[in-house]
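Q: Given only this backbone (72 positions), what sequence would you predict?
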C-alpha cells in the first residue's frame, strides 16, 4: 500500500516528527485540561515512532513494524 510505503520513507518519518512537535506546541499553548494532555501524549508518540523508524499501522496491512524492513 502506498500510504504505508510513504510513512516508512524518510519523508514520512520527518512528517510524523514535525506533526508530533506541532501538536505538542499547540497543545501547550492552549493548555486547559485532559484534551491537551492527550494531544501532548499523542505528539510524543508520533515523535518517538518517527525517530525509532517504526510504522504502527503497517502490521494492519500485513507489513513489518520496522520501517527499514518495509523499505528493504
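A: Predicted residues:
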Amino acid at each position: 500500500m502506498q500510504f504505508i510505503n510513504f510513512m516508512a520513507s524518510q519523508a514520512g518519518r520527518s512528517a510524523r516528527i514535525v506533526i508530533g512537535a506541532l501538536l505538542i506546541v499547540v497543545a501547550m499553548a492552549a493548555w486547559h485540561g485532559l484534551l491537551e494532555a492527550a494531544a501532548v501524549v499523542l505528539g510524543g508518540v508520533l515523535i518517538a515512532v518517527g525517530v525509532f523508524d517504526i510504522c504502527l499501522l503497517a502490521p494492519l496491512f500485513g507489513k513489518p513494524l520496522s520501517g527499514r524492513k518495509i523499505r528493504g
